[in-house]
Amino acid sequence: MRFFLVFIFLLSGFFNCVLAQEQNIKEVDSLYKEDQFYAGATYNVLGKQPSDVSQSGFSLGFHLGYIKDIPINKRRNIALGLGLGYSANSFNQNIRINKVNDVVTYTLLEDSDYTKNKFSSHLIEVPFEFRWRTSTPTEYSFWRIYTGFKVGYMIAHSVKYKGDLGNIKFTDIEDFNDFQYGLTLSVGYNTWNLYMYYGLNPIFSEGATMNDENLDMNAVKIGLMFYFL
Asked: What separation in angstroms does the CA of 61 have from each of 18, 112, 131, 172, 221?
């Protein structure tokens, strides 16, 4: 939690400096574009959890990328956005994911003493947004509401456990869905923007079951997003 807050503080300070420099050197541009780079941090939650599944610790997500701003009206305060980004996410929880002889099993860590149990993913993402804002060619602090859809392709993943069963790590669990997609929303003023992502498909494939119950958990991410040119 402390690392998350320090990261947010440093990130906001950096973007305030960038925005201040832009305001000093940017000339009036009637064909201006906004918010073409983004970076943010989120708290990650598992939605649709099976019974007895719970999360522990602080599950983090870090996101950055570029979005091409495409204004669609004369005032240029309404736009579309299409981009490319990277996302790293972790989920701390109490599901023991194990693999023996190419067979993956899922069990609850009920009697195990452990200090770490999480799965992580790294994704290349393509965001698409519909953008409304109160910006003008000379106004650099403005309200924004950006809503959209994001598709991610998982380029790497890992499962880590550290406890009385040993130190265990897997990077070849086939049950992860390679494609992750969901709805996004960014709402805020100037530097600070509340960001939300709701996954529309499960993190795991249909073959992932625990106690004869499908692991249909999806990703829900809530945090802050920072935009700059």
From this structure: 23, 26, 23, 21, 8
Could you tell me if 84 and 125 are in contact, meaning their C-beta atoms sit under 8 angstroms apart? yes
pLDDT tens digits, residue range 115-131? 999 999 999 999 999 99
In a domain, 31, yes or no: no
Comparing C-alpha atoms, which of 214, 196, 200 is closest to residue 147? 196
| Residue 184 forms part of a structural domain | no
**For residue 183, is it within any domain?**
no
* Count of residues in the chain: 229
Q: Which residue range(s) make up the domain with 59? A: 2-24+36-135+142-177+189-228
The dihedral through the CA atoms of 75, 78, 80, 81 has a sign that is positive
pTM (predicted TM-score): 0.86
- Could you tell me if residue 109 is inside a domain? yes
> Is 163 within 8 Å of 115 (Cβ atoms)?
yes
* 156, 220, 46, 152: CA torsion to nearest 10: -20
The rounded distance, in Å, linking the Cα atoms of 199 and 150 is: 9
In the chain, the number of structural domains is 1
Phi, psi of 191 (to 5 degrees): -75, -40
The count of other CB atoms within 10 Å of the CB of residue 228 is 16
15-35 confidence digits (pLDDT tens): 555 555 444 445 566 778 888
Residue 158 contacts residue 171 (beta carbons within 8 Å): yes
